[in-house]
Structures are given as C-alpha cells and as structure tokens.
Amino acid sequence: MAVRACGLIIYRRLQPAPSSKVTDSIEYLLLQTSYGSHHWTPPKGHVDPGEDDLQTAFRETQEEAGLQASQLTLIEGYKKELHYPVRGKPKTVVYWLAEMKDCNTEIKLSEEHQAFQWLKLEDACKFAEYEDMQATLKEVHQFLCSRE
C-alpha cells in the first residue's frame, strides 16, 4: 500500500516596493527537517485514520509550523499530487495552496523541524532539493501570477 501524505504550500505577500511587480513580493514557507538529510519542505504529514486529505494538511501545518487554519486562506483552484518512492515504497503527497492572512504571524516549529525560512521563488527552489518540489513551486508561482 502506498504511503499517503498531505500538506500546504504556504505563501505570504510582503508590501511590494512601488516599482516592483506584485509577484516579486511573494515568499514561500519552507521547513527544515531535524531528521535524515535535513531537507527543506512545506509542512506535510501522513494521513491519520478517519481523516480526509485536507484535514491532514491543516493538522500537519498546525503541528509543524504552529499555524491555525483560521490564520490561512485556502486558494481555490490549486491542488497538486506528487508521486515518488521513499525507501523503495511508493509515496503520494497532496498539496494545497494557502496564503497567510497576516504576513507577520509567528511560526512555531515542532521537534520535527529545526529551522524555517520565508523564501522568494528562486531561493525556495534552491532550498527544495527535489526536482518535483522545485517544479511544483514554479507551477504555484505561475498560478499566482496568472491570477493577478
């Protein structure tokens, strides 16, 4: 049976400088794991019995980043499924897109993570080592730009 996990790609908009494009003011939240290779990832985790995927994404975001669902706005029209092997077993990760309502909200990490960063797209892609996550971040950015 494939492992299933769900999470949120969270972004915030900073006050853009008058000369800059709106999309230049977008930053993405990545968390650095305190286990394994200390990779950077959006908040995500395994689906618990009786939970639906979106409930899992919000619960994991609360557990891993200290963010309540009420502090986020779920963005309609974006959902991404990634499929890749982990230790020889297939894994599916489903991501939704969410915007921080207040860009100054404090992030409170769980023991699963040792650091977090708010990153512009280019840096977020450098931090996210996996190609499918880099592609997803670029896709999200394109999606947000197309809604401006």
UniProtKB/TrEMBL annotation:
Cofactor(s) for this UniProt protein: a divalent metal cation
Residue ranges of domain Nudix hydrolase in the record: 1-141
Pfam family, one: NUDIX
This protein's UniProt keywords: Hydrolase, Nucleotide-binding
EC number: 3.6.1.17
Gene Ontology terms describing biological process: AMP biosynthetic process; ATP biosynthetic process
CDD domains attached to this UniProt entry: NUDIX_Ap4A_Nudt2
An annotated Gene Ontology molecular function: nucleotide binding
InterPro entries registered for this protein in UniProt: NUDIX_hydrolase-like_dom_sf (IPR015797), NUDIX_hydrolase_CS (IPR020084), NUDIX_hydrolase_dom (IPR000086), Nudix_hydrolase_domain (IPR051325), Tetra_PHTase (IPR003565)
Top-rank taxon, per record: Eukaryota
Catalytic activity of the protein: P(1),P(4)-bis(5'-guanosyl) tetraphosphate + H2O = GMP + GTP + 2 H(+); a 5'-end FAD-phospho-ribonucleoside in mRNA + H2O = a 5'-end phospho-adenosine-phospho-ribonucleoside in mRNA + FMN + 2 H(+); a 5'-end CoA-ribonucleoside in mRNA + H2O = a 5'-end phospho-adenosine-phospho-ribonucleoside in mRNA + (R)-4'-phosphopantetheine + 2 H(+)
PROSITE patterns: NUDIX, NUDIX_BOX
Functional note: Catalyzes the asymmetric hydrolysis of diadenosine 5',5'''-P1,P4-tetraphosphate (Ap4A) to yield AMP and ATP. Exhibits decapping activity towards FAD-capped RNAs and dpCoA-capped RNAs in vitro.
Family under the similarity heading: Belongs to the Nudix hydrolase family.
Protein name: Bis(5'-nucleosyl)-tetraphosphatase [asymmetrical]
Gene that specifies this protein: Nudt2
